Amino acid sequence: MLVSEFINKELVLFSMADNVRSIPSVLDGLKPSQRKVLFACFKRNLKADIKVAQLAGYVSEHAAYHHGEKSLADTIVGMAQNFVGANNLNLLVPSGQFGTRLMGGKDSASARYIFTRLSVVTRALFHPDDDALLTYQDDDGQLIEPTHYLPIIPLVLVNGADGIGTGWSTFVPCYNPRDVIAAVRARLDGDEAPELLPWYRGFHGSITRRDKAKGSTGATYISTGVAEVAAGGESMTITELPVRRWTQEYKAMLVGFVTGEFNSGKDEEGGKGGKGKAAAKGKAAAKAGKAAAAAAAKGSKKSPAKPKKKKGDDDGGGSSDAPEDDDDEDFGKKKKKKPAPKKAPAAAAAAAAPKVKRAASAPKPKPAAADSDAEEDAGGASGDDDDEDFAAGAEEEEEDEDGEEGEDMLGMMGPAARKGKGPKPPPAWKPKVGEPIVKDFAENHTDTTVSFSLGLLPTIAPLVAPCAGAGPGGISAAVKSIFKLETTLNTGNMHLFDASGAIRKYTTPAEIIDDFIEARLALYRLRKAHLLSKLGDETDRLANRARFILAVVGGQLKLSNRKRADLLAELHDAGYKGFEPPAKAPAEGGEGAGGEGAGGGSEEEDTGIGAAGASLQTALLARRYAYLTGQPLLSLTLEKVGGGRRRGGAHVRQRGALPHPSPHPAPPCAGEPAAR
After folding, report:
1. Structural domain count of the chain
2. Which residues of 111-123 are buried (b: 16+ CB within 10 A; e: fewer)?
């Protein structure tokens, strides 16, 4: 087999299966493994606690789960989790340690020690009257879970979704169920759905929308924790973390703040553990290499760039008064730097003053040995080593390049073009790389709440001092950035399987609601027609039973000492209505459900369906009249007649309350809360 044939005919099947298992449906918000768990719970009518490990085995047996039971147990645990950042509406009840916000659910106990059952709200979301209308799949002759369920609200917006497939991934934030219901009602009334803000049950922070970036396809929201700086700026209390920022991970970051190992100056771009430092060093090295290569191309005899000397060497690690010219047009020619004395901390403001760029028309040659990153921080101590200079100056170099190019262009265009352009503002204060900023911290939180008490060092005072005593709402953006009190939630990657089974990208929650409403209304019409037919048949069945009992009690119909075929023929001639035995839907029966008739498991013997010599007509009549002939003797009493008539009257009234199927939207049918 050719490689192309293998990829296009074999590997593509895996990719498709991977996407099906990783990306949920827009109709029920469930992945196949979650759907199998729900199917098994409905089939078992799971109202009492059961071990998660035992439920996983039951799901494997009755829903044909072909993968590891450990993965299935993790799925069950995930459906029952209800901590902040998990489910807004957990479909299963967590009876035991199912994980907390301390570790994002990873601290759940073993499946053999925890129990679960169906939540009360689950059957309200997935109405039992819909079960008979779903399309159940067949796995080697065994009926398993349906292709999809259809809850009464778009569950994918309530509990969100997250998954990575092959070539596709998805992320859907969680929203408030009340807001989702209000949006559905607005769309049913023909109005525009109001904008939905992400919402997580138990979250006490704030979620705000950020201005849409150019070229972005979805909205971006900022999740902000809660913090307060005490008067004097010597301590700070954090009482809430952003969504999906777990307590133990945050504690590890605070430990890095205490020891100075956490790269507080560059972790936004480079991550933890000094990756920002390495990235900045790599950028500076790349610039030096480009300069050396350009000089060599012009036949220059300059020596290659020499590394900058460490502290304590002869040059003392001095800083530069004039900025460097990094433009490509200079072909690596650098301007000479005059050695400057070491700056005292009091001279930090002077070092941050606007820089004046020398005219580009007469560049002076500069030895390649001069480093492009020799300039230190505005308030920096001259004794910092190379790594600190690289990391602390990388961002300023990039900003200076853009700013200096703009100043060159303004200088070439004349004074009029520069009119209104003020001095360049000083860079924002940042803690030095590797320098501790937290003296100590105490943990006062529980598994459901967050409470960190931080003692701050004087090094962070310039940043937190303006926030002292301002309350939780007075925390500056710089403090939020340093202490990681913000996370982003984006709606630009909402990929879901639509009603036709194809992956579709949704840009707004309103699009998801529109697709859901279309499928839900179609199922409502089918459900009403099914209920009307079911109630009509049940009313006729009760009426025929009452008539049959009265005929037997009154002596008009004789049952004893006569042939079965003659009795069935008399019932047919008398106009009794026959019904096929009701077959239970796969999701409604318990263990051993096989669709027996109303007369119980011995009905086949009673009706004589398997008797030798029975004609096809007799067998058909026996099956259809089994609801009459299969009744126990105690049913032939006047009390049973009265009870049957009362139930029949109730069915007639319930049937009258149901509207006839209509192509127009209609309120929910009986057994479900009204839309208003």
Report:
1. 5
2. beebbbbbbeebe
- Please report the pLDDT score of residue 586 as a whole number: 55
Residue of 458, 452, 411 lying closest to 439 (CA atoms): 458
Let me know if residue 5 belongs to a domain. Answer: no
Residues 553 and 564 in one domain: yes
- 437-471 residue pLDDT tens: 899 999 998 999 999 999 998 888 878 888 887 77
Using a 10 angstrom Cβ sphere, with 0-12 exposed, 13-18 middle and 19 or more buried, the burial of residue 186 is middle
Which residues does residue 488 pair with via DSSP β-bridges, in sequence order? 222
| Residue 566 vs residues 110, 560, 571, 616: alpha-carbon distances, Å | 64, 12, 9, 14
Of 113, 136, 175, 625, the active-site residue reads 113
Whether residue 164 sits in one domain with residue 134: no
Average pLDDT in the 22-43 region?
96
Tokens of 625: 């009249």
Of 450, 474, 507, at which residue does a domain stop?
Answer: 507
CA 100, 105, 109, 112 torsion-angle sign: positive
Domain co-membership, 379 together with 302: yes
Q: What is the pTM of this model?
A: 0.69
- pLDDT band for position 138 (50/70/90)? very high
Spatial separation of the C-alpha atoms in residues 583 and 282, rounded to whole Å: 71
**Is residue 518 in a domain?**
no
Q: Distance between CA 236 and CA 468 in Å, rounded?
A: 9
N-to-C CA span, the chain: 62
Nearest-5° Cα angle at 150, 148 to 155? 100
Compute the Cα dihedral for 476, 481, 484, 485 and give only its sign.
positive
Q: Are 353 and 342 within one domain?
A: yes
The candidate with the shortest Cα–Cα distance to 452, out of 303, 245, 632, 603, is 245
Domain of residue 605: give its range: 532-657
Instruction: Calculate the alpha carbon distances from 635 to 270, 550, 630, 647 in Å.
Output: 79, 11, 10, 15
Q: Do residues 456 and 472 make contact, with C-beta atoms less than 8 angstroms apart?
A: no
Q: At 227, is the pLDDT very low, low, confident or very high (cuts 50, 70, 90)?
A: very high
- Please count the residues of the chain: 676
Domain assignment present for residue 142? The answer is yes
The answer to whether the CB of 165 falls within 8 A of the CB of 19 is yes
Whole-angstrom Cα distance, residue 511 to residue 204? 28
Residue 157: count other Cβ atoms within 10 Å of its Cβ: 28
CA 80 to chain centre: 15
Angle ∠(577,582,584) on CA atoms, nearest 5: 170
> Residues with Cβ < 8 Å from 110, sequence gap 6 or more?
53
**Residue at token pair 């525009």:** 192
Rounded Cα–Cα distance for residues 280 and 522 (Å): 58
Element (H, E) at 38: helix 32-44
Half-sphere exposure of 567 (CA within 13 A, CB side): 20
Last residue of a domain, one of 150, 183, 200: 150
Mark whether 113 is an active-site residue.
yes
Among 71, 112, 75, 70, which Cα is nearest to 90's?
75
Residue that the structure tokens 């449906």 belong to? 25
Amino acid in the structure at residue 440: D
pLDDT in tens, 251-309: 999 999 998 887 544 444 334 444 444 444 445 445 555 555 555 455 444 444 444 44
Contact 84, 201 (CB under 8 A): yes
Q: Is 470 found in the same domain as 378? A: no
